[in-house]
Each structure stands twice: as C-alpha cells, then as structure tokens.
Amino acid sequence: MRTRKGLLGVLYALNKLEGKFTDKEVRLLEILSGTIAISIENARLYGELKQYASSLEQENRMLKSDVQDLFNIQGVIGSSPAMRQVFALVEKVMDTTTSVLIQGETGTGKELIARVIHYNGPLKDKPFVVENCGALSENLLESELFGHVKGSFTGAIADKKGLFEQADGGTVFLDEIGEMSSAMQVKLLRVLQEGQFRPVGGSRQIHIDVRLIASTNRNLEEEVKKGNFREDLFYRISVFPVMLPPLRERREDISLLAAHFLKKFTKKLKRPAAKLTPRAMDLLSQFDWPGNVRELENEIERAVTLAGKEREISEEHLSEKTKTFSEKGILIQKTDGTLKEVTEQIEQRIVSETLQKTRGNRSQAARMLGLTRQGLLNKIARYNINL
Asked: How many C-beta atoms lie closer than 10 Å to residue 346's C-beta?
C-alpha cells in the first residue's frame, strides 16, 4: 500500500480455494489496497491535526494566562497617593464593560492601563485591538477602523476587515482620540450609538458588540468648548474617566520605576547587575520628565548602554538634560550672557523639549506652548532646532 510519502504497508490476501487470483481479482485488490492506504493516511493525518489543535489550544491558554499575568494591576509600578487613586478607580471599572476615557500626558502609561482594564475583566479572553487616531489620515483611519470592500478605492485589491469587526465581543482601544477629525467623530458616534457600521465602499451593515476604551493627552472638555470635539461623543466615551498623573506629580515613584527599568535593561542588554548612585538617583528624582515614564525608561536604557560592564550607574552616564535642569525645569548650570541671551537659551530649550515630548508634532507642540503653528515654526527656524 503506497501513499504520496512512500510505502505504507502490505495488504496480504490468500485464495484458499483456487490457490491463485485472476487478473481481474488482482486488479481489484490493487484498487482496494490504494483505497485502504488513503483511509489509513487520512486517519493518521486527522490524528496529527487533532493533536496539533489540542497543542495550539493549550499554548493559546498559556499565552493568555501569561498576558493576564503581565497586565495584572499589581504589576503596575507606583505607590504614590496619585497612583493609589488611579488603582482604586481601575479596580472599580475593570470587572465591568463600561466605556473608559483615560487622560494624561504623553508617556504616562495610558495604553498600559487600558490593557490592565481589559485583561483583568470579563472580556479578557476576547480580542483587544489598538489604533492610534493621530497616526493616520482620515481616510486611512476610517479604513482601519471599519474595513473596506475590494475596489472601494485605489489600492483596495481585496476586502479587509476593520478593527471594530475584528474586536467583536472584545475591546477597541482608541489612542489619542482627541486627534480625530470632525467627520470621523460623527462616524464613530454612530457606531457607538447603533452598534453597527458599513465598511468603506460597502452596502452591508455589520453588527458588532465591543467595549470602547479611549485615551487622549488633550483636555477634551476644553476641546468641546472650543468646538474641536463633539460634545455628544465626549459624553459617550467618558462614562468612566481615569486621569493619569504626570511623573513630576508622583516623584515618589521615580526611584521604583528607575530600579525596575535598570533591572529590565541590564537583563535585556546582557550587562552585569547594576545600581544607581545616590547622586544619579537625586538627579533623576529632580528632573521634570516632560516625556514622563517613557522618557525615564529611555534615559535608563541609555545609561545602562553607556555604563557597559560597570556595576554602578553614576551621574556621568546620565544625559546632559537631567544634569542641567532643576526640579522646576530651569537651567541650574552657570549661564553667561545678557538677560536677553539667557532668556533666548531657556526659550530654545523649552521649545526643543516640547517638540521632543510631542515627537515632532508641531501642531500639538504649538498648542502646549500657547503659540500659533506659524509662531512655533518661526522659533524653530530662529533657533535652528533639528527635529
């Protein structure tokens, strides 16, 4: 008996009456042996497939368990009063399917809190999908969220499921929802109200049931007053608001976070276990961290890289900005020059830091500095700031 993989076995047949088989009987046995071989091979493949599916299911359960452990609220670092208030709110909302609006500056950990809420709640075994509303144009964002049908626009060579459809039964996390255009706000509001939508270029309504968690670094109440954000959408998404404090308002947590990142990056970069000197820790604790936890994490990774095989992270391994700025963000190093020159130096540093904080987003930086976009562009050109 043969299969595509080669010889499987032998079919033994005996004619007890006549001692031998006729050509017709031999041909029938050949056909029969082929059929039996296929049946045996299919049974073997089915068994392997079933075993593989069982193995995948077990692996999937283990991965889900690992993810849930990773995003356990006890694993979020912070013991300051401000963070204890956040934990208290999160614990109240995470066992529900209530819509949550997470507000806070860039780098405060909004996506981490969103994952904690999802993976410790009733939807933890369901999908969790993420989209940054400020990273895509309006048309691309609509296609990402709601999908599109083949031929609906140039480049749409096949049907594509949107994130809302992919997340059906689970959670959609919309990061930086404050960057969403007015037209997209209307479409999102309709989906949240009706629980259905049409893909771009499609005519069929798709029904979904999802939990929405949104985040923003803007003051949406102010944006509503200015007419930049729809009031009805704001009330729809902010059923349960959670405000994350900036790192400068939870300085007690800087040492804990620094120690955590130090352990993380010495392991990742295969460096010997190290510790921060008291002076280095003082500098880290005094700095304002405009980029918040993310900026601190980057600072520690840089320091570990510079330290090499040394077992102490000292002042010399820290970036210049942490050594030249005081707690209030003003230069503490001696600065020579006239008042005008010193003021310009400080202004240049503030503009540079704000652009770093917004990752080069000029419009957002201008809003934070209270400037027009053109006013900011003029200062960038004046101080020759490289982005």
From this structure: 14
